[in-house]
Amino acid sequence: MKTYTTLLLALFAGSLTAQNLTPLNPVFSMLTVNPSYAGISENMRVQSQFSKIFIPSFTGYRSGEASIAADYYDKKTASGLGISANYSNMFGGIRTDRQMSFTYSKHLFLKKKFKLIPSLRYTVANMHMNDTWLGSTGNNNLNYQTLSAGMLFNYKNFYLGYSAHELFNTSNKSSGLLSSLLRNNKWNASYNLRCGKQLLFNFSALYSNYSAFNNWQLSTNAVFCNHFIFGGGVQLNDVSYLAAGYKANRINVMLMSTLPVKSWAGFNYSLMQLNVNARLSKGTQDKTQIQNIETW
Hints:
Blueprint: H1 2-18, H2 30-33, E1 45-54, E2 63-74, E3 79-90, E4 95-106, E5 108-109, E6 114-129, E7 141-155, E8 158-169, H3 177-183, E9 184-194, E10 199-210, E11 213-224, E12 228-235, E13 239-247, E14 251-258, E15 261-262, E16 268-279
Antiparallel strand pairs: 1-2, 1-16, 2-3, 3-4, 4-6, 5-6, 6-7, 7-8, 8-9, 9-10, 10-11, 11-12, 12-13, 13-14, 14-16, 15-16
């Protein structure tokens, strides 16, 4: 029974990772969605994310994820630089992932309010599977490197992006460039709508495709009086979440939680996520009305 449970959770952990079920709220973890967001705030910014999965049926298997990302915009070269680190532990160490990424983006101003941003991201990663209960004698520790690319179009308060993940992967050299462009990618779009002086809406959509897995998400965030944040969203397979937070001039905090979900493996689970974002330098929106969430 213990072996069966481990196998079931290992497969479930793999499906969560492949389907990119996190981040729940993409506008608060933008470098994870698309590397072209590096430097989009035109100052220095830090975004952090902490997630925990709760499975009532398996209380002894703890799961969580933590990530932190920093990006900076250089006005002289109109370029964005980013660095991020991610750690995830699925179900008591059945699967652990560690990643360190370095990002470069180039901000091309086509016209006064049109912007096109291509980007590249280099990642060093490690994946470990603790499958001793399964009697495996294979290599359970995998070190690999990947190269990803992104493209982002921005016009005023509208954003449209595409990112191709794993254009090159040292652990899977046979995948090919065309396969990565068509099968390992994300599409994202968002729009900010200002309704009077006290209310701002942000609508976003995200579609991700990884080999045989795909996922889509629709999200809405509302900012009241430039400070109070409320949001919600839905994902594939009836995953939905609610969120609430607060924004100060240079820092914002957001707490999100999914409604109970029944997985394909037959057990219920829920996920809670905390986002803490901060800008380390002054921005154009410090003393004015917020125009869009992406440049916080």
